[in-house]
């Protein structure tokens, strides 16, 4: 089996694939989550483990996802089945695709809520709501927003519509057009912000916080968080990258594309940290402030700095764009599957899926107001969706992909798809994928479980 094209269309070039996959990878994970979990987990040591996970676990598994997708040229659910059957195994491997679709919905539920906050802040920064705001007031603005169910629903709904409009346009007219304009804009905004933060006075302190290795700060919890985050930030373990891979041109090299994507994603996370922490330190604030770091600490900081209003606006615009190009990829696997399975057009599939994710998002935003009493395994709905997907479903999905591509898929199929000219490099990838990545994921999983049960 070697499909030459997907019924959904294909990226115009290898670069468009790289832009789209980078658009998926670079998102709230890099700019909102990475800085605050780094802050909560003590800085440098956490960053080091995270980088290690990206390289040893993330990159090889991302290559596996892309190659499975491109080999089958179908949605992840059908791709897993087809490639398994091609290699003489059970079509039940499609279950990995199903778990991915479910994870995509669950991630979207809290992702869209946070993206809604971002849209609210873009508007707020644009209209000068945060000029010279104090930290008490900034906390109040954020907490009032969280308590205000209807406002949250409005911004969440706007975000759902933005995402669905792009998906409804299809691979070329929707996704490709969006990333072609949004990604360059994102990079320009990021560089502008980095420049601003470098002259803010706290750069050295921010740098020290992120790159000073202090082993005493490490816990198994931090290691699991770093592992889970490396999946989340690279969009792995749920089929997004597999779906994007299925639209990739046949001749394009997978290895170099994946390295570029992982490098860009990591760079954006590190730059986001280097843009945020100096501002935090210069203003004497707490880097471990949690999910509110970006929404309380930063507006205060921006509000007090020269030009802060404009840069605050630019900052939230950047985050909004990043969230948008990621959220698309959360729903693309399910959309592609519906089109394949029922022969529906994109638009009705989008409307159907849009309703589902809208409801899930309302449930997640209810965690802060009308559903605050609902607890799942001790978490509110919002935190539950985040914890279960990042720390369990994505690593598990990635583990299955590694085991599948490493042990079940025919070696010649991978060799053919990856087309790495150096046998040594291919073997290196194969060994890491078969042994090192799955073992690392399994060990971190098990040790964490033991720790929890103690
Ligand atoms: N990678 C995205 C981010 O860092 C989140 C995401 C996860 C997107 C999984 C798609 C799939 O924000």
Q: Looking at the structure, what is the overall shape?
A: globular
Assembly type of the chains comes to single chain
Mean pLDDT: 93
Largest sheet: none
Rg result: 21 Å
Q: What is the rounded distance between the termini?
A: 49 Å
Counting DSSP H or I runs of 4 or more residues, the number of helices is: 18
Count of the separate structural domains: 1
> Count the strands?
0
Proportion of helical residues: over 70%
- What low-confidence regions span 5 or more consecutive residues with pLDDT below 50? none
CATH architecture title: Orthogonal Bundle
CATH names the topology as Hydantoin permease
Structural class: mainly alpha
N-to-C SSE series?
HHHHHHHHHHHHHHHHHH
Question: In CATH's first tier, which class applies?
Answer: Mainly Alpha
Bound compounds, each kind once, are: phenylalanine
Overview of this protein structure:
This protein is mainly α and 454 residues long. The chain is built from 18 helices and no strands. The chain has a single domain, classed as Hydantoin permease (Orthogonal Bundle), CATH 1.10.4160. Helix content is 77%, strand content 0%. Helix 5 (94-126) packs across helix 15 and helix 7 (149-168) crosses helix 8 (170-198). The chain is globular. Residues 24-25, 27-30, 107, 232-233, 235, 238, 240, 326, 329-330 line the site of phenylalanine (PHE).
């Amino acid at each position: 089996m070697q499909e030459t094209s997907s019924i959904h269309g294909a990226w115009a070039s290898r670069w468009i694939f790289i832009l789209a996959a980078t658009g998926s990878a670079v998102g709230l994970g890099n700019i909102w989550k990475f800085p605050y979990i780094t802050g909560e987990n003590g800085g440098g040591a956490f960053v080091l483990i995270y980088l290690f996970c990206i390289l040893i676990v993330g990159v090889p598994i991302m290559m596996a996802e892309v190659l499975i997708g491109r080999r089958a040229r179908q949605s992840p659910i059908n791709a897993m089945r087809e490639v398994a059957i091609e290699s003489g195994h059970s079509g039940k491997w499609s279950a990995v695709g199903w778990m991915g679709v479910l994870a995509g919905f669950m991630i979207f539920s809290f992702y869209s809520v946070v993206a809604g906050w971002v849209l609210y802040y873009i508007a707020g920064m644009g209209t000068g709501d945060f000029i010279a705001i104090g930290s008490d007031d900034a906390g109040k603005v954020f907490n009032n927003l969280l308590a205000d169910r209807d406002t949250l629903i409005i911004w969440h709904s706007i975000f759902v519509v933005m995402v669905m409009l792009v998906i409804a346009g299809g691979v070329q007219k929707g996704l490709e057009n969006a990333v072609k304009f949004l990604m360059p804009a994102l990079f320009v905004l990021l560089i502008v912000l980095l420049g601003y933060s470098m002259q803010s006075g706290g750069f050295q302190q921010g740098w020290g916080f992120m790159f000073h290795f202090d082993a005493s700060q490490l816990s198994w919890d931090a290691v699991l968080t770093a592992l889970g985050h490396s999946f989340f930030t690279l969009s792995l373990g749920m089929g997004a990258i597999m779906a994007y891979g299925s639209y990739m041109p046949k001749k394009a090299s997978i290895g170099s594309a994946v390295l570029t994507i992982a490098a860009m994603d990591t760079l954006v996370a590190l730059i986001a940290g280097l843009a945020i922490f100096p501002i935090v330190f210069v203003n004497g604030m707490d880097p471990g402030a949690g999910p509110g770091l970006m929404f309380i600490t930063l507006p205060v900081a921006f509000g007090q700095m020269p030009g802060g209003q404009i840069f605050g606006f630019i900052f939230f615009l950047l985050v909004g764009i990043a969230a948008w190009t990621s959220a698309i990829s959360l729903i693309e696997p399910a959309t592609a599957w519906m089109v394949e399975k029922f022969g529906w057009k994109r638009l009705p599939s989008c409307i159907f899926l849009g309703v589902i994710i809208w409801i899930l998002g309302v449930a997640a935003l209810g965690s802060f107001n009308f559903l605050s009493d609902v607890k799942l395994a001790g978490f509110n709905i919002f935190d539950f969706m985040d914890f279960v997907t990042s720390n369990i479903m994505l690593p598990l999905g990635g583990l299955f992909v590694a085991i599948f591509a490493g042990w079940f898929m025919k070696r010649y199929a991978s060799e053919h798809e990856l087309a790495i000219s150096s046998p040594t490099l291919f073997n290196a990838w194969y060994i890491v994928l078969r042994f090192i990545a799955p073992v690392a994921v399994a060990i971190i999983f098990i040790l964490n479980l033991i720790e929890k049960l103690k």
